[in-house]
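A reminder from the course coordinator: this example appears on the midterm review sheet, so study it carefully.

Given structure:
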C-alpha cells in the first residue's frame, strides 16, 4: 500500500490533518502519552481500503495492491 507522504507526516508526527477518518484513527490508536500503535493503525487503514472507504482511498494510491 502506498500512502501519500503528506499523510505520512501526520501519522509519524501523530498530528491531526485534513482527513477526518485518519484523525479519528490517530486518536483511536494513540495512548495518553502520545504513543501511536502503528501496527494497529496500518491494519485498520488496510481494512478500510479493502472496503473502498473514500476517505481512506484519498490517503492512498488507488492502484497500489492490497493483500
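Designed residues:
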Amino acid at each position: 500500500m502506498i500512502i501519500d507522504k503528506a499523510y505520512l507526516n501526520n501519522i509519524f508526527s501523530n498530528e491531526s490533518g485534513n482527513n477526518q477518518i485518519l484523525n479519528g484513527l490517530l486518536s483511536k490508536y494513540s495512548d495518553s502519552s502520545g504513543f501511536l500503535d502503528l501496527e494497529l493503525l496500518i491494519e485498520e487503514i488496510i481494512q478500510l481500503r479493502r472496503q473502498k472507504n473514500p476517505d481512506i482511498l484519498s490517503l492512498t494510491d488507488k492502484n497500489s495492491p492490497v493483500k
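The chain has four helices and no strands. The helical segments are 5-13, 20-28, 38-50, 54-57.
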